[in-house]
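Minutes, structural biology subgroup

Action item carried over from last meeting: produce the structure token record for DNA helicase IV (Plantibacter flavus). EB confirmed the sequence was re-checked against the source entry. Recorded below for completeness.
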Amino acid sequence: MQNDAIAEEQDHLDRLHDVIRSQSDLEERRSELALRAFDGDDDSSFSERDALVAHHRQRMVELRSSSYGLLFGLLERETDERHHIGRIGLRDPESGDQLLLDWRAPASRPFYTATPLRPEGLRLRRRIGTAGRRVTEVHDEVLDTTMLSDDEPSGIGESGALLAALGRARTKHMADIVDTIQAEQDAIIRAPLPGTLLVQGGPGTGKTAVALHRAAYLLYEHRERLMRSVVLIVGPNSTFLDYISRVLPSLGETAVVLVTPATLVPGLDAHAEDSLEAAELKGRLRMADVVARAVRERQVPLDEPVTIRIAGDGPLRVTPGVLRRIKAGIERSGTPHNEAKLRFDRAVLTHLIGLEAKRDGFEPRTGEDADERRQELSEEPAVEELLDTMWPILEPAEIIDRLFTDPELLARVAPDHTEEERRLLLREPATGTDGTAATDWAVRLTPGDIALVDEAAELIGEDQRPELERQRRAAYERRHDVEYARSVLEMIGDISIDDEAQDDDYLRSAQDLADRQTMEDDRSPAERAASDRTWVYGHVIIDEAQELTPMLLRAVLRRGPNRSMTLVGDINQQSTSATRSSWQELLGPQLPRWTEELLTVNYRTPEQIMALADPVRLELDPDSPAPVSIRRGEEEPVQLTVEPTALAPTAVRAAVDAITAHAGIAGVIAPRSLLAEIDTLLADAGADRARVWTGTARESKGLEFDSVVLVQPAALGGTGHAALSLRYVALTRATQRLTVVDSSS
Ligand SMILES: Nc1ncnc2c1ncn2[C@@H]1O[C@H](COP(=O)(O)OP(=O)(O)OP(=O)(O)O)[C@@H](O)[C@H]1O
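Output recorded by EB:
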């Protein structure tokens, strides 16, 4: 019977792979054809072409990346219909019959949610296990209510497929869970797009998995909209992004931008580190005022009148009052600093024209005459210097760097901070190798600076002059081209260019051409979004949301003004030094409304290891619900106490033993001060570094390992609540076994 079912599913899987192969070749050809079809004189727009090419390419990627674990389920409905469920949807190219239902389609939902008590129209649910292209097992569940009593277990929570998935050895990349999504997770994944959803869950409850599958689901369900507007995913650090990076393509999605707090602003990647205290101070909302003052400080820094001399003419005296009035006018208009540069310059130049007129006893110039004079004056070195000092073009990251390297500036713009706070915020200006001050502020930026850079960028805006200059040139060249075309056509004499309409047509097509060139941006929406700080995303997902500082939340909210967001996190795993003990305290001041969902089952950590972590949870928050481990491990945690000098050698031995005796990967989580020694000893022992990860508790956030070696749990960093929380994180990273190595003193 089982063998018949396996053979039957094998036939189906073979058929699916044939279809995938031919379909993906077809999509590739279609995308090439679409590219070529619009190459010629076709008047369809480029954006139409881009959309078509992107559509075919996306489908091709989807088809090619779905072949692993393509088929995993079958639903037999009471209506006698049978539907296979898999990673993507597929139809028979000839008959049009549905061969495979996408796991995200509404019709697939009962696969995850039907129970014997609520069978949702199902008669049978079959789980299909595969290895590569081979069907290895099938498991049928009969969902016929008439055959079951009331106390029959409901749900599919503890099915063999789930336990097999959880017991599998881990790799350095997270795997998707499309075949074993649980009902409580499914409800979150398929929640509606609008509004803010907050998912609280203890360690290992699948928050990250759910967040990523939700991204894939939303892109499926709202494809049109989100393929254009893109989904933003914010993760805690680059190791984490690397860990999850393969989940999305394997789900077939590419319209996603992944960032960390360090890379939120396009073009920047902050590598320097802040102390916990400095990070906390930088994260507070009052920094927004400090940044605003730091920007305003650069506008009209003038206390005394300034005298300008232009060769050959008498002096002109510009007073601070006049410049401040111009500044006040700009402030009232709300125009960002760099964008207001042209306006400021023009107002000052007009004032200078007035001063000249007064000095020379003439009427002030007006109209084109004034334009010409403004242009001349702006090229005078003395005037240029005045304009550049009074209203310099600003660079957001440079403003923030100066803020933390210039004590006097910081004292002026952060008067409400205490002296101690300012001391914590300041950093040494880095020096170059030759002892001179390094001018490259980029190397000094910390992740905590980036939200402040974003704040500054918002106030500063773009320097519009290069774009205006480009447009001016383009308009000139176009006029020149039209003139040239006109003279050529007149010379040939076979077209009457006196005909106004034709001239208009020519101009219109020249205009079209220019417009087309600007539209000829063949980057995908995700690539465009990734390079545009002001991009408005269709949906924003934040993982480890408990780590958001208020300033970071403010920067992220700018990217999702429609508040279509999913935040996942665990308030007990918050390791910032400013503990905000509830989501309300953390989000409330900036985000007034959200719907909260709770995840309760720990899919990662075996019961015995959770028992070791539980006292830490109780210390963190006795009222927080304990996540329930779904399984018991085969091994009890091991606790070793050694001399301080033996910490690193003992940890290395435990890690090497773990990867020798067991499949999968080991993680050594240790205080930063021990990591160099541990890495050296691992190298000496010839350990396979692809299978041993080392790092601090903070760096281990969101990651998991088959075996964890935890060194000195009381010294993992931070103080008070943050230290406890880091210990809780570290204790809950293992999927199979845990060794704790502590020192006797
Ligand atoms: N339904 C499921 N089927 C199979 N595996 C699952 C399921 N749900 C979660 N897992 C697995 O459990 C592990 C933990 O999931 P995940 O990392 O998403 O949890 P988390 O809540 O983000 O954890 P933490 O907050 O501790 O970092 C992962 O290996 C994930 O693949």
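Discussion: The longest strand covers residues 122-131.
Next step: EB to file the record with the rest of the batch.
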